[in-house]
Write a structure and sequence with these properties.
Number of strands: 5
Largest sheet: 5 strands, parallel
Order of helices and strands: EHEHHEHEHHEH
CATH topology: Rossmann fold
Strand content: 5-15%
Helix content: 40-55%
Number of helices: 7
Radius of gyration: 16 Å
Number of domains: 1
Bound molecules: adenosine-5'-diphosphate
Length: 176
């Protein structure tokens, strides 16, 4: 029987560094250690499957449910998942936790000020100018995770340092 995979669920503001760190972890696991892993990215999921979804709480929940469904399929087939989703509400994270058997929550912690400063996708500028509604951190809430398994402070850490911390966590918890 295939051993069920684990899931590292990266939550945090847009631009906090979820995808950057998840990609580094993916490459460490896949390229260096030959561990089967799949990165699931919120932006990509919206682009290819959930184009019809907006950013209301209901639509955000649909997006998360879709991601959880895919994650379950992968995990069941022995593939580990690195999920990069803002997941702004504790209720959503609880949903993930209760539906994914081997779930580990990683809070990619970055101050709103720093995210605005980085503004990788130029979205904060637009949100502040009122051109985008329901933007997390500006016109929509981000509830601080209540019980993350790991916190990465991306204001003070380099992405490589954060990725190493994730790897240490994986080893420490004997996930691989
Ligand atoms: P998210 O997936 O959370 O929306 P991204 O990973 O797409 O965020 O973007 C984060 C941006 O911040 C990238 O351009 C990355 O290079 C930059 N960055 C700066 N410092 C860090 C850090 N310590 N950890 C992760 N990303 C960082």
């Amino acid at each position: 029987m295939t051993k069920e995979g684990f899931t590292l669920w990266f939550t945090g503001l847009s631009g906090a560094g979820k995808t950057t760190i998840a990609k580094l972890v993916e490459s460490l696991l896949l390229d260096k250690m030959n561990v089967p892993v799949q990165l699931l990215d919120g932006d990509l999921l919206r682009e290819v499957i959930n184009q019809d979804l907006g950013f209301s709480k209901e639509d955000r929940m649909k997006q998360i449910k879709c991601a959880v469904f895919m994650t379950r399929l992968l995990n069941k087939n022995g593939v580990h998942v690195l999920a990069s989703f803002i997941t702004p509400y504790e209720e959503m994270r609880q949903y993930c936790c209760s539906h994914i058997p081997n779930y580990h929550e990683i809070f990619v912690d970055c101050s709103l000020e720093e995210c605005i400063q980085r503004d990788v996708k130029g979205l904060y500028k637009k949100a502040i100018a009122g051109q985008i509604n329901q933007f997390t951190g500006i016109s929509d809430p981000f509830e601080t995770p209540l019980g993350p398994d790991l916190i990465l402070d991306t204001v003070t850490e380099f992405p490589e340092e954060s990725a190493e911390k994730v790897l240490s966590y994986i080893v420490e918890k004997q996930l691989i």
